Amino acid sequence: MPTLLRLEWRHVRRDLAFWLATLLLVAALIYGLANGLAWTRFQASTIRQAETLAAERLAAARTDAAKFDQAPPANLSPNLDPRDTRGFEFNYLRRFAVLPQAPAAALAVGQSDLLPSLHRVTYRPRDSFLHNYEIENPLRLMLGRFDATFVALYLLPLAVIVIAHGLLARERAGGTLALLQAQPLSLTRWLAARFFLRGGILLGVFAVATWAGWLGLGGAPSALGAVTVWLALVLAYGAFWFALAWFVASHSTSASGSALSLAATWLFFVILFPAGLNLALTQLYPPPSRAAFQDELREGTDDASRRGSQLLAQYLEDHPELAPAGKPGNENDFFRVRFAVNAEVERLAAPLRAAFTAQLGRQQTAIEHLRWLSPTLVLHHESLVLAGTDRARHQRWLAAIGDLHTRTVDFFAPRLLRSANFRDYDQVPALDFREPPPQRIAFLAALAALLIPASALLLLSGRRVGL
Amino acid sequence: MLTTEALTKRFPSAAALAVDNLTLNVAPGELFALLGPNGAGKTTTINCLLGFVTPDAGRALIDGLDVTREPLETKRRVAYIPEQVNLYGYFSGVENLAYFSELAGHRYPDAGLRKFLAVAGLEPAAHDRRVAGYSKGMRQKVGIAIALAKQAKALLLDEPTSGLDPSASHEFSQLLHQLREQGLAILMATHDLFRAKQDATRVGIMRHGRLAHILTADELGHTDLEKLYLETMGN
Predict the structure, then answer these.
(1) What's the pLDDT tens digit per position in A224-243?
(2) Where along chain B do its domains lie?
(3) What is the Cα–Cα distance from B21 to B23, expressed in whole angstroms?
(4) ipTM score assigned to the predicted complex
(5) Contact B143 A179 (CB under 8 A)
(6) How far, in Å, CA of A169 to CA of A123, rounded?
(7) Which of residues 85-124 of B touch A (CB under 8 A)?
(8) Beta bridge partners of B25
(9) Please, which pLDDT band fits residue A336 given cuts at 50, 70 and 90?
(10) Ramachandran quadrant class, B209 (left: phi over 0; alpha: psi -120 to 50; beta: rest)
(11) Nearest-CA residue of chain A relative to B96?
(12) Which of A18, A176, A179 best tests the B interface by mutation, with the highest count of B CBs <10 A?
């Protein structure tokens, strides 16, 4: 084999299409990495600004409270007074629930540019701050952002097709195959050397460019482990495409036929299957209409607002501990009514939201199972998981926000309704979002899902090479 | 050295047998010329000896080894020059020769490679030029050099002088004579009756996959080969 590799190098050196494809792929990869890192920097800066604002306003609440204690201002509205729950919540509390960036987030932006990664959580109904109307850019949804994962998913297979589609057929068409077959060598080993050398160089250059690009463009060195895991999957994905090219090459009589078969396979795995799966799941598990949900919620809110006093009475009957104790009449009526209305809106929204979540969950479960049918989906899914931009993580974060909202309502309800003197700045609930431990088994399963079909294709290809 | 034993081959798309129960033997130092029209089975016979085509019945043997059972060993013992020698256009003549020689297990110094090319009749000025600019005759000469460099015991030639000018054809004949003198067994499929009569120690005329006539060197001397050929085809 070393002799065959050495001899093959003489061909590779002069293979312009190979070097051009490799160069373009590396350029696209570097651009993808730069694009991903630029996005994550922008996202990190937004998060930093939000966190700075939250800290500044909290500090201001303490400072102003101390100042007002010493010299109470005249005619200060309770809505502006940090010592009043209403004032603190309305004028000072700027608390954001942030979805933390994973170290390797820049590898796969996914839909993190469409789905918010921070929400300002208040005691008001969730739909007043969870602005998730599924406003999606269809083109971007179809293609994804131009990041490193996009390059790996879409362009790497194309580079493999360009490089490998004619490795056998060109010999046949050029007439050199007969002369080769007359030599005392295994044509399978000779073809293996062709594929291994080109595959080794292309994937090796891709790996080096990924590491160098990551570090050179300012990616976190601490994320190199995750980048390497991603690379392992990408290399396995590349190996799958090389094995497929080999299989097709050994069954095709012409380079154009081989290229056409590979292009059709690329179209199926990379475009048609994911799109078809998406369509099938939307048909099988159609999510309830967002517009109908909003309409129903709006009507419910209007109705609840009209029945404010009645709802308040009912609310206080359900929460007797929150009934005003010795407070001046009607001082808190607005807030009390708002609380009762909010609770009613939440009650109305809960089953609608649950229906959404359930359908999304069913879609997610179906994808979890069906993604194994396409190497592209396997790599895409694992890339998103490694980058922390997968849908499941986002859903876990939304669930944590739901929990935070419940605790926020529980925290503010007694304080707002009773207009207690507010000093509990350090007790305001915070987001409790915990990352699950890394799924090593899932990674190994994904690796196996890419390497097993690659090995099977190699075995099948080796049996059929010749004139 | 080159032997077929009741060799039979039928291609799926053809009604008739391509090679029909063919038995022949080419001894070391012998040049056996296979004559016959297109489709007579000459190339199929050579392809069976090279292992490109698996016979339906019978055996093809090189140096006593069955081609089907020991493909690598038999290929080590035989060199092949097709009608059209196709090489890598982006390699020079020397580079093509080095490449195919190394594939065959022989690594020569640069001077050695150039010597093979010179023996094959390729002008030194052409040695380092890209083969893409070679004429058919020049490529054929590189093909001959590849065969020489392989140091094989037997040589299979499939219409090797087709398209060569008379001078190149003559040089090729001389080369074949030298190789025969060195003890190589040569089987040559050709349409060139003149060259067959000049070079061959035996001539076989094939028709419908069978050897209709075999003429020895003595018989060739006093036979009108063209007449015999035409009579055979007429029958």
Answers:
(1) 999 999 999 999 999 999 99
(2) 2-86+156-234
(3) 7
(4) 0.88
(5) yes
(6) 68
(7) 85-91, 95, 99-100, 102-105
(8) B3
(9) confident
(10) left
(11) A10
(12) A179
